[in-house]
Write a structure and sequence with these properties.
alpha+beta; globular; binds zinc ion; single chain; 2 domains; 15-stranded mixed β-sheet; Aminopeptidase; OB fold (Dihydrolipoamide Acetyltransferase, E2P)
Length: 338
């Protein structure tokens, strides 16, 4: 598959008991630092054999609830009171996280997007090397992977979990069970694959995977953070790593939904200023106006009204008003029949 050895060296020993904070040393020779490395933080918390979980945050650097929740969790866990192992990447694409950006500033455009870099390349760009390490070292040695996203700088989401169906129906059922326990208001099953993202890399290895879309707009949502912190405790208890936390109540049952295809998305047809004509949480019908694109630089020109292409619930909305042709303005979800 992708068997070349990673050039990244871990300061932590994944087979050792206790709590270890360290860095993944990604060799990066630059004008300023000839023998330097990029220090990607990693935490390993282990107590004997047992279930193995990988928690990923900062896959996109401008999505913050995950980055906060997993570092709080790491500091809070007493390794003597758990079983198995949790490996945590709180800022998986560190250069992107430090810049507060979706993508790494070390690379142009899409090449700096960790969630479009799988399965990665052991001698590629820093982002490709991180993807390769996650795939060949961390995904190869875990049972579960949870990847905490939000909408980032350009999108805002109703707090949701996201998963893909596995080839094995028992694994799909297991993932649905975890999304119900997590307790976000919406549990979305994605139909469309992004072939080079972490979810697909996890499925290729037959892992139990769950992602989130928690808030967005480059902010931290208090509501989304509370949902994440409680959900994380519940699923880590459920998989057998942590004892039940008496401070965490039962989950609210999520609305089970799917994102079924390209017609769930609305895109801008022109450069201009986006006026939303619907909001998050609205139930809309196909043909209904979704937004108008205005041209303040050419005031005589009528705005273009963009419709929704189908019925559904508005779960995601663009944040910045300034918009280019091809930018996503909204996406919908629909209730699962099952
Ligand atoms: Zn993301």
């Amino acid at each position: 598959m992708n068997a070349q050895a990673s050039r990244i060296a871990a300061e932590v020993d994944y087979a050792r008991d206790g709590k270890q904070y360290g860095f993944l040393r990604l060799p990066f020779s630059t004008h300023e630092s000839a023998y330097g490395w990029i220090p990607i933080p990693v935490i390993c918390i282990r107590n004997g054999a047992g279930p193995r979980v990988l928690l990923v945050a900062g896959n996109h650097g401008d999505e913050y609830e995950g980055q906060i929740a997993v570092t709080k969790l790491a500091r809070a866990i007493d390794p003597r009171k758990m079983s198995g192992r949790i490996v945590i990447l709180p800022a998986a694409n560190l250069p992107a996280a430090l810049a507060g950006r979706r993508t790494s500033p070390l690379e142009p455009g899409e090449r700096g997007n960790l969630n479009r870099a799988f399965p990665g390349d052991h001698r590629g760009s820093p982002t490709a090397m991180i993807a390769h390490y996650i795939d060949t070292v961390l995904l190869a040695d875990t049972d579960y992977v949870f990847d905490f996203h939000s909408g980032g700088s350009s999108l805002l989401y109703i707090p949701s979990t996201e998963m893909k169906r596995a080839e094995d129906p028992a694994k799909t059922a297991r993932m649905i069970e975890l999304t119900k326990l997590f307790g976000a208001p919406i549990s979305c099953i994605g139909i469309t694959d992004i072939p080079d993202n972490l979810a697909v890399a996890a499925r290729r290895r037959g892992l139990i995977h769950m992602g989130t879309e928690l808030g967005g707009g480059g902010t931290t949502s208090l509501d989304a953070l509370r949902i994440l912190e409680a959900g994380l405790r519940r699923i880590l208890h459920h998989v057998g790593i942590l004892a039940a936390d008496p401070g965490v109540g039962a989950p609210q049952p999520p609305r089970m939904m799917e994102v079924g295809g390209p017609d769930y998305y609305v895109y801008s047809p022109e450069d201009g200023v986006f006026e939303p004509l619907a909001d998050l949480g609205d139930t809309v019908a196909g043909g209904q106006p979704a937004g108008a694109i205005h041209f303040p630089d050419n005031p005589a020109r009528e705005p273009i009204v963009v419709p929704f292409l189908r019925d559904g619930l508005v779960v995601c909305k663009r944040v910045p008003a300034r918009t280019k042709r091809g930018d996503c303005l909204f996406h919908l979800a629909t209730d699962l029949d099952a």
